[in-house]
Amino acid sequence: MSSLAAPLPAPVPRRAWLTDLPVLMVAVVWGASYLAAKGITTADTVIAVLVLRFALVLPVLVVAGWRRLRALKAAQWRGAGLLGLVLSGIFLLETYGVVHTSATNAGLIISLTMIFTPLAEAAVTRTRPPGSFVAAAGLSVAGVVLLTQSGGFTAPSAGDLLMLLAALARTVHVLAMARTKAVRQADSLSLTTVQLGGAVAVFAVLAALPGTGPAPWTVAAGFGAREWAALAFLSVFCTLGAFFVQMWAVRRTSPSRVSLLLGTEPLWAAAAGIAIGGEHLGAAGVLGAVLVLTGTSWGRRAADR
């Protein structure tokens, strides 16, 4: 959700774990976010929950980066605002998707972004990806097929298809950030704040339309302690905290190392879904999960090379 600033020189190796541990914790909370979102969201309350989730953190980001926001040029506001529209689509697809599939499937399918993005970039730049990357992509796709058919070969669920679309939307978002000249010079905090603000505006408009579910304040009034705790987890840890940890870490280590650690997100999504959510994967599902994790890891290394 944010562009990362150029890193400073790497720290002494024996202290690397001091930087790696917070980044790894971001991957853990992101993995657990699918189960948390699934626990407090229904098909009727998706938009209301999204309004609540991001409205809680947006004021903090605005206050923290007020001076930088005021320094943004008009073109940067427009560029970041358009990216915010794409971001709103990603969150809508992801949240509706996780409502209609398992948290395990959601976390593993969304990891295909790491495969889709280099393939899309290769298509845009008309460069041929290495054979090892193509093989890794094929392995990941095969894994998703097995994962979504672990209960028997049937049509994928609506949630599985929505998560696949979310992975494609994430790919569009990454490429748009990289290729939109107006936002290249914008700092990470301002860029993320404007994007989230644009997404919240979309959610607020949708929430005001008839037939889109209960109002956010109605949903909030019906929340108990468990639901508020899950919402706070999504807002504070999975959004606000994760963003600042990324900004802090990338200045103390390499972007590749941060990416490698964040790439373990689907593993934690599966762990949370199975250990906490009581979800179950059959033999085909387990094999599919292994193939997805292997393919995305292999593909990421091939893309880096």
TrEMBL record:
Residues in EamA domain copies: 21-148, 158-296
Membrane topology: Multi-pass membrane protein
Membrane-spanning intervals of the chain: 21-40, 46-67, 79-99, 105-124, 131-149, 229-250
Signal peptide: none
Transferase in keyword set: no
Locations listed in the record: Cell membrane
UniProtKB keywords: Cell membrane, Membrane, Transmembrane, Transmembrane helix
Family assignment from sequence similarity: Belongs to the EamA transporter family.
GO cellular component: a single term: plasma membrane
Protein name: Permease
